[in-house]
Amino acid sequence: MAEEKKGFFQRLKEGLFKTHQGMVSRIDQLISGKKKIDDLLLEELEETLITSDIGVKTTRQLLDKVSEKVKRKELEDGDHLKKALQEEMFLILRQQEKPLELSSARPFVIMGIGVNGTGKTTTLSKMAQKFKAEGKSVLLVAADTFRAAAIEQLEIWAQRVGCEVIRHKSGADPSAVVFDALRAGKARGVDIILVDTAGRLHTKVNLMEELKKVKRVMARELPDSPHEVLLVLDATTGQNAISQAKMFNRELGVTGIALTKLDGTAKGGILISISDELKIPIRYIGIGEKVDDLREFNARDFVDALF
Ligand SMILES: Nc1nc2c(ncn2[C@@H]2O[C@H](COP(=O)(O)OP(=O)(O)O)[C@@H](O)[C@H]2O)c(=O)[nH]1
Ligand SMILES: [Mg+2]
């Protein structure tokens, strides 16, 4: 078990290695050998944090906190400064460490949303696999009917997971697929329904209106559903992820976030920015393509692995 735990943490460290190099190693360079913390050092630190996508506002806030400690002579050297920074990041992240808890609702409906390519289909499929492993029955729903390939991709996942997929022909009305899925889920007493939606933004059919309709159909078929509106964001898109989140939240009301592809960026500081600016629970982080690479978000593990 200890071995397994170590392997699990080691994998997280590997997944965050680029950000470690891009941010923490640069912090190390700044502070190495510094016996005194001066304004120049703090300025350089500010630049490092901003270029790691922590965002101007959140960086400012972090630096205010550590500057106060410097003034109060609580931080004597660079190592203390680094430790303090790590703890302040932890405090921001901890506020949004709220794992997805399944209520007693059956079926429990999760609607995955987000722009194309962020990782919706893979994230929902990985979640399906995790729920399956916990002994729950799951249904995957192909409500991204825009491209035939999207439906096929979900079917391949469903085969791998060993669960059923509800689908219509490509081009069908996503609301109709969802209607069928909820009917089927209720009739069969399914535990969890995971709904994969489209993410194209620039086409004739307005995506937001389509998703709102899907949501309305869910609420009509099963009051209080969807129980989770999970927004999937791609860490490699940086500050764009924040504006996407604001837009989706305004239109649809987001109840949780999954941030994917942290393994693919040196600017994983975006997670801290997301946590601080959006105040939306962070459910999962993605650090690779394997099922185990989708992790329930844990603030302590994240900062420890990062630093
Ligand atoms: N490296 C990496 N790739 C990921 C992660 N999550 C998803 N992907 C990949 O991102 C690509 C797009 O994912 P997909 O689920 O099809 O996105 P969708 O368009 O939002 O449904 C796929 O190749 C996934 O394997 C992650 O955490 N890390
Ligand atoms: Mg997809």
Would you write up a description of this structure?
The chain has 307 residues and is an alpha/beta fold. It contains 12 helices and 8 strands. Helix 7 links the parallel strand 2 (138-143) and strand 3 (164-166). Helix 5 packs antiparallel against helix 12 (299-306) and helix 6 (120-133) runs parallel beside helix 7 (148-161). The longest helix has 17 residues, at 78-94. It is elongated. The chain starts with a helix and ends with a helix. The mean pLDDT is 95. It binds guanosine-5'-diphosphate (GDP) and magnesium ion.
Q: Give the distinct bound molecules.
A: guanosine-5'-diphosphate, magnesium ion
Distance between the termini: 24 Å
DSSP strand tally:
8
Per the principal axes of the C-alpha atoms, what is the gross shape? Answer: elongated
Biggest sheet, in brief? 8 strands, mixed
- Tally of helical segments: 12
The string of secondary-structure elements, in order, is HHHHHEHEHEHEHEHEHEEH
Quickly give the structural class: alpha/beta
Strand content: 5-15%
Low-pLDDT sequence parts: none
Based on CA atoms alone, the radius of gyration comes out at 21 Å
The largest sheet has its strands arranged as 3-2-4-1-5-6-7-8
Helix content: 40-55%
Average pLDDT confidence is 95
